[in-house]
Design brief:
This protein is α+β, with helices and mostly antiparallel strands. The protein has helices at about 30-40, 60-70; strands spanning about 1-5, 15, 25, 45-50, 55, 75-79.
Length: about 80
């Protein structure tokens, strides 16, 4: 489902996409989010980045992402 969002009510439009059944993982900082997005093992499970520290995880894959992050020594926060 695509949604057009215009926070100012005028000017340019920003196209956004609504994901259903996804899960968010919040990292400690933006550098860690970049590191995870670049990780070859995690790439198939990460849909994208919502903010500097929040990653969208493919439905049904959050447990695998959390386990891999824990294996790497990180403590992810699942939102």
């Amino acid at each position: 489902m695509s949604v057009t969002h215009n926070p100012t009510g005028a000017g340019t439009r920003i196209a956004t996409k609504v994901h259903r059944r996804g899960c968010l993982v919040q990292t400690e900082n933006a550098a860690l989010a970049e590191e995870l997005l670049a990780d070859k093992k995690l790439q198939p499970d990460l849909v994208g980045r919502l903010t500097e520290t929040v990653l969208l995880v493919r439905p049904g894959r959050v447990q695998a992402v959390v386990q891999e992050m824990q294996r790497l020594g990180h403590t992810p926060r699942v939102v």
